Structure formats: C-alpha cells, structure tokens
C-alpha cells in the first residue's frame, strides 16, 4: 500500500512537469537543454564548430558528433530523446526517426512519416510498474530466504569443519587399528606360513624321490635301446651296476628318441593343502548355536536398510576396540555389534561366513586357529577399506568446504542437490556444482551436458551465470557445454532450457540465492518513475 | 552470333527440342555472317568450320578432327538388328555401367558427342562455372578436364576442375583485340578440355620467342564432350566483352531485377531454432544498430522436412512471426527443397503422386531416393504442367502460414539424392521422353523457375520474386540469385569467392554470393570480419553457418568486432542506390555487376588474370589485403579515389597501400558519379524516401558521369514505365541531371542532401538552377588537402532536371 501511494505521488508530479514543459529543440533531453539556446549560435557538443541556430534540426548534418540534428535522421551517429511521459524516457538512434516504425511510446519519433502510432506510454508504464512491483516482492521474499540460506550455510560450514575434525580423529584411530590388525594378521599367519613351508619341503622331498625312481626306469630303457641287437644279452645278462656308473656320466647328454620327459606335476594350490589340524574339532559351530544373534543381526540389517537405503559407513558411527588375549588371538569388545563397521563386516559376507565371522569377531575362541585367521584377514581388509573410505570422505569434505558458493556461501544449499526439467522430448537434470545431463524421455542413455566449470557472469555480477563444460563430445563438433543463468525467485527451480547453438545449452534457473537486497531495487524503481 | 547444330540424320528418338536446320553444301561453302567482313567457311571433307573476319581466323571448329557423334541404338536383346551393322565390338560398360553399388542401365547404349574449337591468338579463356578455381581457366593437359555435372558436393576442394552445384556451358575467350564466346547448349554431363601452345612457357620463354621472332601464334584449343544430346553450339563473336554479354543475353536472358531489399544484408543460419530465436536475433540487430533485410529459415523450420509446412511446436504461429518482421519492414526467406517426403499424410506428396508428376525410375515406378526427410520423391520439373502446379502451391491459401514478406530458397536441387550415384539421381531415371542423363543439369534451373513463378503468381503478377538456388544452368539468372554452396570457414574459401562469382557474372549470373563466414567449420574472428568486409561488396550478401557450428551473429565477438561488422554492413547500405542501379542495368543489358578488371580494360593484358580485385560497375574492390595486408592497386590507367579517405591515387602503377583490420580498400574511379544514401536505417525499406548524396569523382579531363535509378523497389511496375532513370553528368564545371527515360513516370520524395566532388578545385561560387528556372547559391566546404568540394544541402528533388554550376 505504501508503495502504490508513492507511485501515485510521482505520477502527479510528472504531470506537473509536462504541463510546464520547457521549449527545446526536438529530440534534446532536458539535461542538455542549455546547449541549445534559441537565437544563439550553436556549438557542436564536441566543440568542433559553431553554426547559426537555424541549422539545428534543419535536416542536414553539420556536426561530426551529430549534435546539431537531435530531432532529424540527418546525422548517422545522432540520437533522439523521447520523453515518454508516463513511462521511462530514453534515447533511440536518430536513424529511427520517421522510418515508419513506432519506437518511442509517446510517438514523438514519427512526426513526419505518416506512421499511425499510438501513445502507449501510460500502459507500458503501468505494466512495467506492475511487473517491477511483482519482482520487488519476489526479491524481497527471496532476499529473506537468502538470509536464511546464508545462515544455514554458515552453520553447515561449521558443521562440516567440525565433522572434518572428527573424521580426522577417527582416521587416526582407524590408522592405528589397521596397523594393529596388520600385526595380528601377520602373527596369525605365522603358523600357516610355517605349515606351508613344511608342506613345501615335504613336497620337494617327494619330488626328488619320484625323480630318482624315474631315473632308474629310464636307465633301464636306455640300456635296452642301446642293446637293441641283444648283444649285451638283455637286462638280465648285464652288469647293471656297471651300467649305472656309466649312466650317470651320459644321462645328461643322451637324447632318446623315445617319449619326452613327462610334464612336471601340476602344483597343488596352497589352499588345497591340507593343513595339519592341531585339534580334530574342525567342525564349525552348527548354525542353530546362535539363533538369537542371527535374528538380531537380521533385524539390524533391516533397520539399516530402512535408515539409509544404501549402506554407507558413517565415519563417526563406529569404533573398533581391539583386545588381544594371552594367545595373541583378538576379539572385539561386545559393543562393536552395534557399530556400523561391524554390521558392514557382517553384512557383506554370505550368510554362512557371516556366522563364522561373527563367532570370530564376537566370540573369539582360542580353539579354532584357522577360523580366527580368516576372521583376522577379513577384519584387516575391512579396516583398510574403511580407512580408504574415510580418506575419500575427508577429501569430499575438504572440497565442499573450499568450494566457491558465492560471497556469503548462499549457493551452498545447492550442493549435492539435483533439479529436473521435463520437455517434450527430454528430461534435463541440473546437479549444481556437479553436472548437467539430458536423458530421452522415452528410454535411451543419458548424455552429459557438462561438468561444473566455474562462475561465468559478467565482471560486476559473476555469480549470475554458471558454466558447465567438457560434456560428451558432439559429432564433428565441440564437447557439450551448458550455461546456466540464475535469476531471483522464491523457489529453487529449473525453468527453461534451449540449445542456441549445437551442443551449447542454455538454461534458466531460479534461486533465492541471487536475490538482491530490495532497497536497491526500490531505488531503481524510483529512478524509473522520475521524469 | 553463329549457331552450329549437328544432329543425327535419322535419330531413334528426338535428340533435342525441334529447332532449325543448318543449310549446307557438299563441296564446302562460304556463308556470310551478317556483317560484311564476317563469314564462315564450311569444308566438307574433312569437315571443318572456320569463322573469319577479314583475313583473320577467329575460331575454327573441328580443326583437330575431334568431332564425334555416337548414335543412339537399340539393345541387341530387345530388337532385330541388321547384321551388317553388327561390326562394332562390344566393350565393357557399353550397355550397362556400374559405379560403386550403383548401376546405369544405358537403354540406348553408350552415347557421347564431342567437338573441338581452336582459338588462334587466344591465351585467356574464362567461364564454364561452377568450379572452385581461378578466374582464368587452366589448361587441363595434365589432369582431369573441367566437369559440368550438378552435384551436391560435401566440403569441396579448391583449385580443382571437379563439378559443383551448377553448370553453365559457356566459355569466353579474350585477347587484347577481341572477346568471343562459345555456348555449348547441352544439359547432359559435360567435360571441357583446354590446351594451349603457350601453356607452360615461362615469361622468359615467351620473351625469347618474341625477340627471336620465331614464335608461332599463341593458340588455345578447347574440346567439349557431352554424354548425350546433339551438338548445338552458339558462337558469340564479340568483338568487345560487352558485345559478348549482350549476344549471350539475347540467347538466355538477363539477370532478373530483384526487389531492392534483396540487395541488402541477409542473416541466415542452419537453423534459427524457433520463433523466439527469430525474435531475439531480430532484436539483436536493432540493439546493435546493424541493418538487415531478410532473416532466413533452413530445413529445421518445417514439420519433419515436409516443405510448405511449419514445425508445430517451434513455429506454431508463423504469421505472427512474419507480421512482427513486417512491422519492422523486414522479410523472411524459408527453404523449399524439391525432394518430397513420401508420406501419405502429406498433401504435397499425395498431389504429386496422384498427378503422376514424380520422376520415374527405369522400371516405370516413382523414383525414390533418400534426402533430408528420409524416403523422398522428386517432382519432374522439366514438365510445364508440373511447374505450373508447383507455382500454384505458393498461393497464400495453399502455403499455410505464408505472407507477402516470405520468400523462398531452393536448396538440394542438383538434385541431391543421398543414396544415389555421386549423391545425385540415377542417369536412367525417366522424365517422360527423356532420360535423366539428358536433362540433369537443367533440373535445378526448372526448380527455381517454377518457384519464382509461384512467388509472382501469388501476388497476382504484381510483386517481384526473390528465390535463391544452389543448382543452376545457362539462363538461371532470369529467376533469382545463386550462392556458391557449402563452403568452409577458411581464408582460401574467402579468396575463392571472388573468382567464383566473377566467373558466374561473365556467363550472365550476376546475383552471386558466398556464405559469409563460411558454412562448414567456425571462422576466427578476424576471418569473419574480413568476410563481412568482402561480402558487403559482392552482389548477394548473406551470412550463413552450419548447424554444428557455434553461433556467430555479428555482435557475439566483442564490441570492437561488432563495430567492424556494423561498419561493413552500413557501407553496403549507403551504397544500395548504386547496387540497385547496377542490378537494373544488368537486367536491361545483360552486363555483369561484379566484373573482372579485364572487362573494363580489355586491352590491358596485365588485368587478364587478376581475380583478387574486381569492379562493381565502375568502382573497384580489392582483396589482396587478405593475404598481404597490403594493397596492390594494379596498373589501370585511371585516377582512383579511396572512398573512405578521398585520397587520390594515379593509375598505371602498382601501388602498395597499407591496410588495417578496419579498412576496406574500395576505390571510386575518376570519371564516375555514384549516388549513396548516408542515412543508414534498420532495413532498406526504411530508407526508401531518404535523400541522396552524390559522389562525383573527376578524371584528369575534369569530367564524370553516372546514373540514378529509382522505382518503388518491389513491384513489376517498372515494366509499365513507373521509374526514374537519370543520367548525371559533369563537364565544363557543370553537374547536371538529365532524364534518360522521358516517357517514364515516377515521383519520389527523395532529394539531394549533399554533393561531394572529388578532385575538385575551389570555386568562388556555386549556383543551382532547377527545372523551373530558379537560381540559388549553394553553400560549400572545400578541403584543400584532399581537393574535396562539398556542396551543402542543394535540396532539389531526385526526379527532376537541374544543374549546378561551379564558378
């Protein structure tokens, strides 16, 4: 109500002004009236020459700067001032004077062309004020929202920094865990390693034995081969001991025409080596041993699923407490059940192994070295993995903290959000600070229209335009890229998309984050209505 | 003109539309050629024609005995053949030929015709467009002949005799004494071989010959070969270039007189996406104060490449869009290609099929090929009834969404057939009595003819049409403009645009231009600016760009480049009165608008091979700066004035003038008067009533002359003598305007706001005398440093008699 009163006041004022309009040559703005004084010689505004006043607006261009013909089309570089009472005053190039096209809403540019122009200034002024008022309201609300956004992002930033610090702490812990587990694993692996070595030695011995047997058999064959005419009287007649002594000398050089050496026996994979069990109780616990825990576990899984949908290790949500017992086996203190890392460890195994692991993790036993070794390895690997994940999270957090979300981080709320726009053919998806993509509405694969590049607005307003580039390449053309124009609004919404030139997309995006302080708009509005 | 026509005595089928017979005598005769000294000697055995003037042989036909005429014949498997005629050995490909996966059934066997022409004393031959080659044709001894076969060539190569989109089988031969021409009237695939006894000789070698006096006369030998038809040749005997142009114009007609707006600037792109895009580009021109007259829509504006329709989403309200342009006195061109989508829900297709207007395949069904819409039929434009029907489709009630400011662009009319041999139609496709091989090079000509007729007819015969075509043939000048097809954003393509348009101008097609900026690829900013500066001085001035290139409207390259482009376009608009008068002149006389220097200086051999500078009427534009950044003004014996600085240059010397990115080296010849309109507005139509400035450039004899032509700019009323045509003449210190068409009537509001006399001396007083006998003194400025006299506001009406006396 206040605002419309103000307009009314200004309008009245403007009517007053036009009522006592000062005489001045056609096309001259009030601000330059003093240079055009009736009866006095006129000096071109660039000072280049002085001409009699009757040559002002005489339809012949005398001044280089066009200033002697403000009201005619005679000068190629002249400009004409329209008063546009009721609307905004303005200049048009003087080539638009009397060209038969209505340019000034007050019709003053077409005074001699016969063009039938209507004075539309009032109407335009009304429309403009309405739309500016609407915009001002939007801007006002938007600006308030923006303040909230700024506060939120401030808090968010603090949270993130705190989180970052926390993760750093848990990262340290995790690193210790990994190291500890590594030691445990290596220790636990020791007996296995020894057994393996033992086995390997036995195998080597056995191989040597076999080789010896083969040697003997071959010697006999060779002997027969050499004695093919039976002169030596066959195997039975021969001093085999004597031949044996010769055989040792020739066997390396002798190349038989007979079958080549049989291939070496395929090495048995170490897993298959039966490790000597120190106890005979190799049977794993039957499943029904721990029915309660199994149920608990399932329940927890379900809870997880409903909580996050997709499982993610929350870096703050777990802590592995590792304890070593006298025989260097380890166990986790019982509360690890409830931590997500523990659940993750369990969930990612097939059911049967999960059970085993649970026993290994949560019911450590000194009886089953084999099972506990496996558990040890798993735990080590999982811990390492968790460490990597934590590292990633730290990196992501650092990236987010250092991101340019605008002068007051007002754009931070857009991070990790996505906004969609559906057209007749495609679904466009803008994930601010990440990427833009396009997907055919009726099936087909997604096309990358560009990844976050930088803010790309004009120098005085660089946060008004986002640029996404290096999208999917175009045939015989550039890589796709997208320019996002951000304008002020109460909502955050993707409003339009176009492709002005092949593979260069242009989208309009509304966000309160670009809303200007309404006071500046008010004054702009004020200026416009002033005549 | 001499016409030589050689036909079969008893052809199996008519080999040409019935025309007159040549009388001849068995022992050889001498025939008079009208003027007393000109005669033709016909020798029977061996057959030979010698065209003489006095004792000089101007041209000999069949002097090398290369005349060949392979008769049409019936297939052996389909007819009883006289066994005595069965001597000929059957070779591969005679009765069926394959090219890649295509085959040509050749129902009448192998056919070909050939004839040789000897041109004694000639070292320079020109013409036979369209080729991306130098203005002066090269000898073809060591390579392929120049080929004339209209083809949709993808990314064509430069300096190459390969066939392009259009074909005009006309060659000009020139030496310092005479210009002659050969018009080989044949629309089948044609090859031209050129050899010369001086080709390959160095300048030094020629000099040596000269000194030793041992030289044989230089001679150029030309051989024409066509795949079918008869030998039907017109020989234009000149003797001046202007005579050859008018002799040729008497055979095929002159340049159509376009609406004045079409001489302005055209903004095109494949594609302006939708109506909103059109509106914003239109607004961009106003915002940046750059004039333009036509905005263009390429194939994407249609509903699924169905021509005569609009995309229902992107161009939902075409009349609204056209009205918006009309409110700004601007116009639009929309594309209409001749391939018609085979779709039973498409009115145009159904009508053509039902009327049996499609070209047939060799088996009698409708010929189908692939083009933009997918499967497409090709209307038989060689049929007059088909053309008549096509023309009727442009009526406002047929072409929905069209308005009087919508004009037409015929592309792909070679015709382009994506899956055809060499991307065109199979030669054995059937046009009634003709095979496609017989009429191929005429197809595009007829498409444009029918379209232009359509645009004329929709206005009840009142409005001049504007139709742009890519394919063309001899005579296409009668129907509109041509452009040099799908060029590329490269410096060499900018350079070649000059000889390509000059060559077209020599054979009657004056309304020529190249895609400003280059169609394929994206130009550097400097190239784009230079291209605007060149395009502004070529007859058809249109920017165009491929779909896959980034946007390049003139204001997208920073304020400095916008200013440079604005300046180039504005220079075009200030010169519109001169351009328009040149078009009128070309329309009346057949003289080219864009001329090689040798046409104006036929006795100066130094100009004979120049194709990096040219004349517009009597003004010169030079483009050497694009490569050298320096201008060499060639030795023509005249005085030239820089049109921007009024700096005077004496001719008959090679002049080096430094140029910058902002200078376009254009010179006005001393002795000429050029009218301009210095008030550049947003379109040519907005400038109709504006006053003129006359630029009078005096020659050393202190005389000058020029013309001024004014009419309504868009109707055929000029044919009803509604125009102003005046001769402007300066001599004895008096400039006067005389009526060249006293029986014509037209009134204009335009007046003279300024007269600028270049090369003047300072008068003590200047007196204007108007038709009613009134005398008045004119104010003037004299710039002694440049010898420029400017008369202030004489104010007389442009249509009246007057004179201005300098004392």
TrEMBL record, chain A:
Region (Disordered): 260-311
Limits of the MRH domain: 416-517
SUPFAM superfamilies for this protein: Mannose 6-phosphate receptor domain
Tagged with keyword Endoplasmic reticulum: yes
GO cellular component: glucosidase II complex
Residue spans of biased composition, Acidic residues class: 278-308
Signal peptide interval: 1-19
One annotated GO biological process: N-glycan processing
Coiled-coil intervals, chain numbering: 157-213
Superkingdom field: Eukaryota
Key word Hydrolase present: no
Keywords in alphabetical order: Coiled coil, Disulfide bond, Endoplasmic reticulum, Signal
Gene3D superfamilies from the UniProt entry: Mannose-6-phosphate receptor binding domain
Pfam families for the chain: PRKCSH-like, PRKCSH_1
PANTHER family: GLUCOSIDASE 2 SUBUNIT BETA (PTHR12630:SF20), N-LINKED OLIGOSACCHARIDE PROCESSING (PTHR12630)
Protein name according to UniProt: Glucosidase 2 subunit beta
UniProt source species: Cyclopterus lumpus (Lumpsucker)
Chain's gene name: prkcsh
UniProtKB/TrEMBL annotation, chain B:
Hydrolase is among the record's keywords: yes
Residue span(s) of domain Glycoside hydrolase family 31 TIM barrel: 256-581
Single GO MF descriptor: glucan 1,3-alpha-glucosidase activity
GO CC annotation terms, alphabetical: glucosidase II complex
Pfam families on file: Gal_mutarotas_2, Glyco_hydro_31_2nd, Glyco_hydro_31_3rd
Keywords linked to the UniProt accession: Glycosidase, Hydrolase
Glycoside hydrolase family 31 N-terminal domain residues: 25-193
The keyword Hydrolase belongs to this UniProt entry's keyword annotation: yes
Alphabetical list of CDD domains matching this protein: GH31_GANC_GANAB_alpha (cd06603), GH31_N (cd14752)
Domain Glycosyl hydrolase family 31 C-terminal: 590-674
Single biological process term from Gene Ontology: carbohydrate metabolic process
InterPro entries per the UniProt record, alphabetical: Gal_mutarotase_sf_dom, GH, Glyco_hydro_31_C, Glyco_hydro_31_N_dom, Glyco_hydro_31_TIM, Glyco_hydro_b
Family listed: Belongs to the glycosyl hydrolase 31 family.
Cited PANTHER family: ALPHA-GLUCOSIDASE, NEUTRAL ALPHA-GLUCOSIDASE AB
Name recorded for this polypeptide: Glucosidase II alpha subunit
């Amino acid at each position: 109500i206040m605002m419309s009163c103000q307009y009314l006041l200004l309008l009245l004022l403007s009517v007053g002004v036009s009522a006592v309009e000062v005489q001045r040559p056609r096309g001259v703005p009030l601000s330059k009236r003093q240079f055009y004084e009736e009866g006095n010689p006129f000096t071109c505004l660039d000072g280049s020459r002085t001409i009699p006043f009757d040559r002002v607006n005489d339809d012949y261009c005398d001044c280089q700067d066009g200033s002697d013909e403000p009201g005619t089309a005679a000068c190629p570089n002249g400009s004409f001032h329209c008063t546009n009472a009721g609307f905004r005053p303005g200049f048009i190039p003087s080539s638009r004077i009397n060209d038969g096209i209505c340019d000034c809403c007050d019709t003053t540019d077409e005074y001699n062309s016969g063009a039938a122009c209507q004075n539309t200034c009032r109407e335009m002024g009304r429309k403009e004020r309405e739309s500016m008022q609407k915009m001002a309201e939007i801007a006002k609300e938007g600006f308030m929202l923006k303040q909230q956004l700024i506060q939120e992002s401030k808090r968010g930033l603090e949270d993130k920094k705190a989180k970052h610090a926390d993760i750093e702490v848990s990262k340290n812990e995790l690193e210790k865990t990994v190291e500890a587990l590594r030691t445990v694993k290596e220790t636990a692996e020791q007996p296995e390693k020894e057994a393996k070595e033992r086995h390997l030695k036995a195998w080597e011995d056995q191989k040597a034995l076999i080789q010896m047997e083969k040697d003997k058999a071959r010697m006999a064959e060779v002997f027969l081969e050499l004695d093919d005419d039976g002169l030596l009287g066959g195997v039975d007649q021969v001093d085999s001991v004597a031949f044996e002594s010769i055989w040792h000398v020739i066997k390396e050089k002798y190349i038989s025409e007979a079958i080549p050496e049989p291939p070496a026996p395929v090495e048995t994979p170490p897993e298959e080596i039966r490790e000597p069990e120190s106890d005979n109780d190799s049977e794993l616990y039957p499943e029904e041993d721990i029915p309660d825990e199994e149920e608990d576990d399932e329940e927890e899984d379900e809870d997880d699923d409903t909580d996050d949908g997709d499982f993610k290790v929350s870096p703050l949500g777990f802590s592995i407490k590792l304890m070593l017992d006298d025989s260097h086996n380890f166990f986790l203190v019982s509360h690890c059940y409830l931590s997500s890392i523990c659940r993750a460890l369990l969930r990612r195994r097939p059911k049967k192994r999960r059970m085993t692991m649970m026993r290994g993790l949560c019911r450590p036993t000194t009886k089953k070295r084999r099972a506990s070794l496996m558990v040890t390895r798993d735990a080590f690997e999982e811990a390492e993995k968790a460490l990597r994940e934590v590292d990633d999270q730290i990196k992501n957090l650092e990236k987010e903290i250092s991101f340019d979300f605008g002068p007051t981080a007002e754009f931070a709320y857009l991070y990790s959000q996505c906004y969609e726009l559906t057209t007749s053919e495609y679904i466009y998806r803008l994930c601010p600070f990440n990427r833009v993509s396009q997907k055919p509405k009726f099936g087909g694969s997604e096309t990358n229209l560009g990844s976050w590049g930088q803010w790309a607005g004009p120098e005085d307003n660089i946060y008004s335009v986002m640029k996404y580039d290096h999208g999917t390449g175009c045939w015989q053309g550039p890589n796709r890229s997208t320019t996002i124009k951000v304008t002020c609004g109460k909502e955050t919404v993707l409003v339009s998309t176009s492709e002005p030139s092949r593979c260069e997309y242009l989208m309009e995006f509304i966000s309160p984050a670009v809303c200007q302080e309404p006071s500046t708009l008010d004054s702009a509005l004020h200026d416009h209505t002033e005549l | 003109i001499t016409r030589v026509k050689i036909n079969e005595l008893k052809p199996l089928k008519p080999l040409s539309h019935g025309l007159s017979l040549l009388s001849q005598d068995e022992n050889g005769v001498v025939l008079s050629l009208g003027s007393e000294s000109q005669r033709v000697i016909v020798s029977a055995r061996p057959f030979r024609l010698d065209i003489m003037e006095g004792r000089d042989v101007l041209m000999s036909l069949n002097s090398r005995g290369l005349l060949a005429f392979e008769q049409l014949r019936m297939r052996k498997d389909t007819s009883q053949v006289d066994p005595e005629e069965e001597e000929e050995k059957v070779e591969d490909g005679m009765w069926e030929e394959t090219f890649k996966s295509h085959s040509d059934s050749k129902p009448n066997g192998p056919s070909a015709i050939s004839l040789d022409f000897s041109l004694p004393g000639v070292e320079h031959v020109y013409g036979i467009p369209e080729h991306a080659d130098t203005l002066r044709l090269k000898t073809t001894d060591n390579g392929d002949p120049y080929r004339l076969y209209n083809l949709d060539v993808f990314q064509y190569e430069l300096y190459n005799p390969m066939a392009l989109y259009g074909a005009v089988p006309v060659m000009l031969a020139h030496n310092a004494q005479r210009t002659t021409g050969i018009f080989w009237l044949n629309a089948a695939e044609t090859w031209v071989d050129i050899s010369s006894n001086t080709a390959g000789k160095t300048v030094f070698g020629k000099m040596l010959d000269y000194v030793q006096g041992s030289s044989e006369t230089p001679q150029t030998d030309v051989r024409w070969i066509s795949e079918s038809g008869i030998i039907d040749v017109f020989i234009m005997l000149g003797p001046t270039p202007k005579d050859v142009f008018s002799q040729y114009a008497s055979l095929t007609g002159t340049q159509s007189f376009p609406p004045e707006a079409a001489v302005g600037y055209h903004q095109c792109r494949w594609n302006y996406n939708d109506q909103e895009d059109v509106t914003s580009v239109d607004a961009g021109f106003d915002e940046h104060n750059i004039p333009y007259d036509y905005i263009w829509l390429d194939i994407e504006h249609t509903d699924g490449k169905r021509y005569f329709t609009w995309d229902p989403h992107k161009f939902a309200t075409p009349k609204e869009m056209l009205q918006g342009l009309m409110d700004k006195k601007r116009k639009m061109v929309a594309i209409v290609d001749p391939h018609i989508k085979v779709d039973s829900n498409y009115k145009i297709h159904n009508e053509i099929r039902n009327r049996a207007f499609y070209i047939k395949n060799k088996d009698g069904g409708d010929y189908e090929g692939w083009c933009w819409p997918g499967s497409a039929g090709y209307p038989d434009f060689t049929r007059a009834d088909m053309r008549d029907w096509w023309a009727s489709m442009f009526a406002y009630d047929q072409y929905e969404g069209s308005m009087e400011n919508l004009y037409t662009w015929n592309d792909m009319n070679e015709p382009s057939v994506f899956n055809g041999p060499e991307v065109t139609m199979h030669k054995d496709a059937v046009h009634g009595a003709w095979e496609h091989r017989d009429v191929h090079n005429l197809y595009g000509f007829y498409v444009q003819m029918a379209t232009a007729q359509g645009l004329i007819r929709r206005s009840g015969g009142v409005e001049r049409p504007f139709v742009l075509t890519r394919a063309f043939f001899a005579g296409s000048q009668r129907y509109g403009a041509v452009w040099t097809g799908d060029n590329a954003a490269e410096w060499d393509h900018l350079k070649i645009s000059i000889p390509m348009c000059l060559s077209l101008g020599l054979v009657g097609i004056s309304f020529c231009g190249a895609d400003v900026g280059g169609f394929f690829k994206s130009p550097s900013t400097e190239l784009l600016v230079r291209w605007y500066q060149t395009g502004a001085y070529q007859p058809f001035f249109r920017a165009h760009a491929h779909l896959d290139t980034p946007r390049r409207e003139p204001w997208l390259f920073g304020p400095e480049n916008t200013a440079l482009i604005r300046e180039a376009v504005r220079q075009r608009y200030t010169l519109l009165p001169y351009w328009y008068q040149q078009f009128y002149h070309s329309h009346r006389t057949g003289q080219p608008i864009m001329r090689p220097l040798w046409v104006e200086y036929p006795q100066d051999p130094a100009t004979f091979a120049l194709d990096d500078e040219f004349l517009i009427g009597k003004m010169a534009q030079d483009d050497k700066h694009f490569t050298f950044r320096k201008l060499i003004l060639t030795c023509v014996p005249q005085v030239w004035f820089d049109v921007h600085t009024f700096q005077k240059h004496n001719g008959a010397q090679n002049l080096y003038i430094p140029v910058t990115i902002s200078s376009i080296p254009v010179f006005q010849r001393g002795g000429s008067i050029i009218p301009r309109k210095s008030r550049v507005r947003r379109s040519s139509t907005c400038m109709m009533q504006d006053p003129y400035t006359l630029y009078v450039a005096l020659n050393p004899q202190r005389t000058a002359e020029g013309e001024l032509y004014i009419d309504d700019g868009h109707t055929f009323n000029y044919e009803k003598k509604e125009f102003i045509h005046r001769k402007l003449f300066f001599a004895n210190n008096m400039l006067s305007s005389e009526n060249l068409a006293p029986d014509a009537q037209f009134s204009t509001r335009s007046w003279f706001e300024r007269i600028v006399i270049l090369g003047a001396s300072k008068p003590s007083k200047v007196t204007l005398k108007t038709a009613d006998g009134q005398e008045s003194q004119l104010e003037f400025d004299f710039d002694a440093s440049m010898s420029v006299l400017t008369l202030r506001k004489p104010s007389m009406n442009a249509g009246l008699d007057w004179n201005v006396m300098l004392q």
